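Input.
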Amino acid sequence: MNIALVILHADPARGGAERYTHDLAAALAREGHKVSLLACAFATAPELVRPVQLQAAGATRLGRYLHFLNSLDTHLSSEPYDIVHAMLPVRRCDVYHPHAGIAAETITAGSLLSRLGNRLNARRHRFASVERALLTDSSLPIVLCLSEYVRRALLRFYPLPPDRTATLFNAVDLHRFDCTEHIGGRGALIIAQDFARKGLRQAISALAQVPNCRLTVVGSDDSRSYLAHAASIGVSDRVVFAGPTADPRPFYREADFFVLPTKHDPCSLVVLEALAMGLPVISTKFNGACEIMTDGIHGYVLDDPMDVDALAAAMNKMMDRTRLTEMSKACVELRPAISYERHVRTLMEIYLRKLEVRHSDFPASF
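Output.
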């Protein structure tokens, strides 16, 4: 099958959608498919995958996005693919896979202040506009949802027929994220690129109620206000900012448990990686990745990401070594459900379904 994967930045070090797209391209190529990676910037491309660099010049993020869309349209008009699989809103594709959640929701969710900020963000507003055109066109793609959490949001904005949606969890390369390498002993771990949305302040606040626990923070966001907050509540000696990393595995190996009190996360890949490495997880019901977990068995799923006391109570429970060991064993048992082999097999079924739908949409004379 001739497959095009579309992402703005082909840089796995960014995590999230970028790392997923890089790993998916490699997995599809290993299966013998012809894979092209369409992006405006490349850090690297997997072996056997063709990089196609699209133009995205402009003085603003919105301008660069619009130029990217035009470049993509030009490329797709000149080169046919069996499947075009896009990770962000574009004007034409066969599979739309919104890793950041439904764009229409991002400009309406959150507090009044955050909604105002989103509406003033021209690129986010255009994302929503492009998405709306894509999902209301007669030749709409199959929308691939990272979780039921995302699917519920999708159907609130777009009442699509069942055959035009599918739910597919993120996947983990179980060969790379090997649970037998887990050694633990270094306390709690959080990996995030957006500290405010992922609940870092709440995690630091909770630490004040969890004696003898250390928190390692991995990510590229600005840490200054969080360092000041840690100092103000007397836990700065137990919070370590490690900065960004292209390889999170050493941090998983050394941590006892993973914490991510996120306010919104379609399906956090780092949560699934942590589970695959045998780390129990504390996250929230606003994280689609928690759908694979059982509260109290694989960790804890909190109702309110702002409830510091509940977060601290869950972290204190994790300090019980017997409970932590039992939970770690339960997490390891989840590995087959999040394997890349299962993910790619299901994805190929979705691709074939789209090809069947495309042919059925043509008049009989075709």
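The chain has two domains: 2-171+339-361, 179-337.
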